[in-house]
Amino acid sequence: MGDGSWDPGLGISLSAENPDWYLLADLFGRANTSGKHGIDPGDLVGFDLNVGWHPFHDNARNLGAFVMLDLEARYQGRGLDDTGSVTGGRRLSLGPVLVLYKDNVMFRGELKFPVYQRVFGIQVSRGLLFNLGVGVTF
Predict the structure, then answer these.
(1) How big is the CA angle at 13 (ends 59 and 87), to the nearest 5 degrees?
(2) What is the C-alpha R_g of the chain?
(3) Strand order in 86-102's β-sheet?
(4) pLDDT, tens digit, 9 for 90 and up, residues 77-128
(5) How far apart are CA 16 and CA 13, in angstroms?
(6) What is the DSSP string of 18-77?
(7) SS3 breakdown of the chain: % helix, strand, coil, rounded to 5?
(8) Which of the four, 55, 88, 94, 99, has the lowest number of CB atoms within 10 Å?
């Protein structure tokens, strides 16, 4: 949930690939500011590392797949959500990612298992994460 604040961020990424392998490292941060409803989730620093294998690609049809291992690390400073509850903490997750693509459309599914989690105050654990997405490239 957002409250209309403008939150500056900065990131840096490194990627490398060849026809069989893929590597992405991403370090980023965001200064979360308090908006008109008093929501202030705390500043965020994150790191992602993806190592992937490209098992299939058909040049003639521009069709293929990536299988990746994703490591996600997050630190979020102590803050408050829209109910006044404490937010923030440290989290490390690891899991597989599958990306299927055809022409300029990509389908992505990922499953992340919690490796480490330590939060501020009393919060509901995030536990297992499952995401599905569709992307379009230009």
Answers:
(1) 120
(2) 18
(3) 9-17, 21-30, 44-58, 63-80, 86-102, 105-119, 129-136
(4) 888 776 767 788 899 999 999 999 999 999 999 999 999 988 887 776 678 8
(5) 10
(6) -SSEEEEEEEEEE-----TT--B---EEEEEEEEEEEEEEETTTTEEEEEEEEEEEEEEE
(7) 0, 65, 35
(8) 55
- Environment class of 40 (CB within 10 Å of its CB; exposed 0-12, middle 13-18, buried 19+): buried
Q: Are 54 and 65 in contact (CB under 8 A)?
A: yes
Q: Which residues make Cβ contacts (< 8 Å) with residue 20, sequence separation at least 6?
A: 53, 54
How do residues 34-75 score in pLDDT, each as one tens digit?
Answer: 777 777 778 899 999 999 999 999 989 999 999 999 999 999
Q: Please answer whether residues 132 and 97 qualify as being in contact, where contact means their C-beta atoms are separated by less than 8 angstroms.
A: no
What does the alpha-carbon distance between residue 3 and residue 41 come to, in Å, rounded to a whole number? 11
> Taking the model in full, what pTM does it have?
0.79
CA gap 13, 116 in Å, rounded: 24
- Cβ atoms of 118 and 129 within 8 Å: the answer is no
